[in-house]
Amino acid sequence: MKNFVFIAFLIITLTFPDIVFATVVINEIMPNPSSGDDWIELYKTDQTEIDLSGWKIEDSTSVAKTFSDGTKIASASSYYQVMLSNRLNNGGDTVKLKDNNGNIINETTYSSNPGEGITLGRFPDGSSNWGILTSSTPNSSNSSLVPSSTPTPSITPTYTPTPKTNDTSTPKPNTPTNTPIPSATPTPNRILSPTPTPKITKTVTPTKAPNPTVPLTPTPTPTEKAGSVLGEQDNASTPSAGNQNKRGWIIVSILISLGFICIGIAVFLSFKTVARKRKFLELERDRFS
């Protein structure tokens, strides 16, 4: 893993030596000069000479400056002023620094007009702290930042008297002594006791007792006739049930046969239609052939 990282580092350093060994940033911007051209200042963070041949300065629309061959930031200097005529928008713009391969080296965006003859810059040089500088300093160390107007007193709202609302809320829990609870309790307890007791035992016992005491056999002679009559009625009823079963089977068989007949008719008609279609297709083939 260490060997892989070392090889990758060598490839990057050999391919992009200026980016690895020297860092160039946009350090100061003059978008609204009182006279002359707009300009930016580049800042080099170390003492390595940087070749800017083919590098470009772009704004939010297009290329504003292309460095000619042989343009360099010497190793002994750290600042390089770039004149841009009137390309920068006063009210806000984006400034990009690209190398000769089109890679973005640095990019800065401002969104408001700092004022006529006033520059935006980093303080200290090369840092990430941007702001309005107290004075423009092309090709030299940036001046300090203008102290921002601190809106701190307007932010601190004196809304501490809000506990007055708490005072109004404290008597509220004292007043609602909700005492409707005992009114709901006595009503359901009295309903359950009288209803279930009288319905269970008194009405059932007297009705079923006289049923077994009805033996209607005082004289033996008429019972035999009744028995014979009942026997004849049973014998008469049994063949009627058999006839009904036979009729049921006959109806079922008729329905089954009708079903088979219908299926046969359907199959016959389907074969007939298939035969017609085949004849029609043969006729069409003969016609086109």
Tell me the CATH topology of the domain at 2-132.
Answer: Immunoglobulin-like
Number of helical regions: 9
Judged by helices, strands and strand pairing, the structural class is alpha+beta
Mean pLDDT rating: 74
Biased composition (Low complexity): 134-189, 198-211
Region (Disordered): 129-226
InterPro entries: Lamin_tail_dom (IPR001322), Lamin_tail_dom_sf (IPR036415)
Pfam families: LTD
Would you kindly provide a written description of the structure presented here, covering whatever features stand out?
The protein is of the alpha+beta class and 289 residues long. Among the domains are: 2-132, Immunoglobulin-like (Sandwich); 235-289. Helices cover 40% and strands 17% of the residues. It contains 9 helices and 11 strands. The strands form 3 sheets. A 5-stranded antiparallel beta sheet has the order 7-2-1-10-11, with no helix packed on it. Strands 5-4-8-9 form a 4-stranded antiparallel beta sheet, with no helix packed on it. The protein has a two-stranded antiparallel sheet with strand order 3-6. Residues 17-112 form the LTD domain. This is LTD domain-containing protein.
Describe this protein with a few key phrases.
289 residues; five-stranded antiparallel beta sheet; 17% strand; Immunoglobulin-like; 11 strands; alpha+beta; rod-shaped; four-stranded antiparallel beta sheet
Short structural description:
The chain is α+β, with helices and mostly antiparallel strands and 289 residues long. The protein is built from nine helices and eleven strands. A hairpin with a 4-residue loop joins strand 4 (56-58) and strand 5.
